Amino acid sequence: MHLLKPLSPGTVLRFAVLLTLVLAAPARAAYVGVDLYTIGTPAGFSDIYFPGGTAGVAGGQIAGYGAGVATDYRAHAVLWSPSAPSGSDINPADFTTSYAFFTNGSQQAGYAWNVYSDSNAHAMTWSGSAASAVDLHPPAYTSSGAEATGGGQQVGWGKPGGATTPSHAMLWTGTAASAVDLHPAGFLISRASATDGIHQGGLGYRTAAGRQHALLWSGSAQSAVDLDPGFDLSQVYGVAGDEQVGFAAINDSHATHPVVWHGTAASMTDLMPSGRTSIALSTNGISQVGSYEPTNRAHAALWSGSASSLVDLHELLPGDFQVSTAYFIDASGTVFGLAGGGTDHLYHAVAWYVPEPGFLTAALVGWLCAQRRLHGSKTGVRVVSYRAVGEPV
Predict the structure, then answer these.
(1) Which listed residue, of 7, 9, 202, 365, carries a Cα 20 to 30 Å from 49's Cα?
(2) Which among 195, 235, 228 has a CA at the least distance from the CA of 54?
């Protein structure tokens, strides 16, 4: 037990107000932005490419590709992470060319081919290294590609005929033999771009010149649900539980709207804030993340189910970044993304998180102790001990 020097009544009042504000503040307002690392170039590469719009960033990882003298100037899939900020070449053996487009923080998705044998794309999944690559290509299909992973599943597309055959949405559970064709009746083209291990999301066209419809599946072609809200374009980019997120757009408006669904077209909620264009890319079933353009530059954004709930995550980043996008939100609420346009002219992996309650408690008690040293009148204030929420007594 420690008897502290007393505080003035005014200091006690300020402390009480500060504590009340912290405890009353919604969790979404407590996010802290962190610069994880600067994205570098692998040895022997002269060009690198990573997500420009929809996927490929999660858990501090970035999935992309690059080329240079080390690859004979053919594209190789590359994975960036905090332990490998300059990137690791994950091109699978027996393939000359590969592309990674997605990561959920532990597993990546993309496709690869060999220009000397089979030049058709093969859907691929990785678990962080070239040696972990698994060829998901179903033998009965001409070409295939994986676009997302989650919950032990991989989703993407496959072409059951020649190179000009319309694509079918596909589902895998880790092997080529597990392939399931999700293509729904009444559609000419379909593609899956999200999964949580139970539900799959993507898009479809009823005719070659028709509108792009957001689609939702539950593991089979027969389970397909058309989420089209009546816009000219729509697509699902993220699913979690009974929630789906993506975008919807009217061609004449030149603006995409971030939207959230709960299993039906009628359930769609437009998350569009004021601004030019927006998109929702990921959900954890509670919050949605993506980007919006308050002016002509993208800002990472977070919503909690409505347009009015928008939090501009870009404003919480350190440094002088000019653009940012939030690509993924995990079950704990941690958000991962990219930011760039700063004075170094480089892109950075970034994250936003909510500090643990113990962090806030420690900060407040630290402030209280600092105030103690500045004041001296006796008011009977005493601190016995403190602990973070969840810590043993």
Answers:
(1) 202
(2) 235
CA distances in angstroms from 265 to 202, 244, 260, listed in the order given:
14, 11, 10
Phi, psi of 177 (to 5 degrees): -65, -20
Q: Which class is domain 32-202+233-254+268-353?
A: mainly beta
Residue 43 vs residues 110, 163, 317, 366: alpha-carbon distances, Å? 22, 34, 29, 46
pLDDT over 80 at 155, yes or no = yes
CA-CA-CA-CA torsion sign (304, 307, 312, 313): positive
Structure tokens at 112: 């690869």
Task: Tell me the C-alpha distance between 126 and 148, whole Å.
Answer: 11
144, 99 in Cβ contact below 8 A?
A: no
Domain residue ranges of the chain, discontinuous segments joined by +: 1-29+357-383, 32-202+233-254+268-353
Task: Give the pLDDT confidence of 173-185 residue by residue, as tens digits.
Answer: 999 999 999 999 9
Sign of CA dihedral 350, 353, 359, 361: positive
Residue with the bigger pLDDT between 207 and 151: it is: 151
**pTM recorded for the entire structure:** 0.83
What are 379's two structure tokens?
A: 């008011």
A 10 A CB-CB count for 167 gives: 22
pLDDT, residue 162, reads 76
